[in-house]
Amino acid sequence: MPPEVLALPETAQGEERGWRRGQDIIDALPYIDELTPEYRAALSTSSKKPSDYLAELPPEGSFVADLLERVQRGGKSEALDVQRYDLPAPEDESVEAWQGALNNAHSQLEHQYTRLLNLELLVKFGPDSWRARNDALATLVEGLKAELKVVEERTEQVNRRRKLMQLSAGEHLAQLQEQYRLLAAKNREIRAACDSLEASAAELPSAPQN
């Protein structure tokens, strides 16, 4: 006789939406229940996919949404526009064309000067800035590790309490099942005795009528 599964297959929890719509949500005791072939077959035929979990997340910004959509389509990112860094010659010999080319040359020269200035500042202050940044990141990492340790300890405590509660519930359910089995057997015995008495009573001769 296969072991009975201590579960309530008709119990639904939460709102049925997204990939949960139309699915049977099982309230089981995983620490004491055994994964029967029926449940294995149900898991193998489930229509839920890993990507369905992301469908219920709140919408991101337009940039992130467009980026995710482009990645799903397999598209490539747009190349950088370097046309504004070009220094084309005047299109004609007019004063306006030469003035535009001259203004563009001044802009490009100022841009190159700014790049040189930034490089000089990076050479002078970059190492100290990076060391300070690395120290800040190291402090942040240590803080996150401490928070992660606290969360892991709390999770372990929750899992332990849940396991103890389920084991206790399993013992209680086993006792109730044994009581049910004994009562059902006793009821069958009483029913059989009643049927036997009724059959014996039916075989008795009827009382004479005056």
How does this model look, in words?
The chain is mostly helical and 210 residues long. The protein has a two-stranded antiparallel sheet with strand order 1-2. The chain has helices spanning 37-44, 52-55, 62-73, 95-203, and strands spanning 7-8, 27-28. The protein is built from four helices and two strands. The radius of gyration is 39 Å and the shape is elongated. The longest helix has 109 residues, at 95-203.
Task: Kindly summarize this structure in a few lines.
Belongs to the SPF27 family. This protein is mainly alpha-helical and 210 residues long. It has helices at residues 37-44, 52-55, 62-73, 95-203, and strands at 7-8, 27-28.
Keywords, separated by commas or semicolons:
mainly alpha
**What does the radius of gyration come to?**
39 Å
Q: What gap, in angstroms, lies between the N and C termini?
A: 59 Å
SS-derived structural category: mainly alpha
Low-pLDDT runs of 5+ residues are 1-15
InterPro entries: SPF27
GO cellular component, one term: precatalytic spliceosome
Organism: Prototheca wickerhamii
Subcellular location: Nucleus
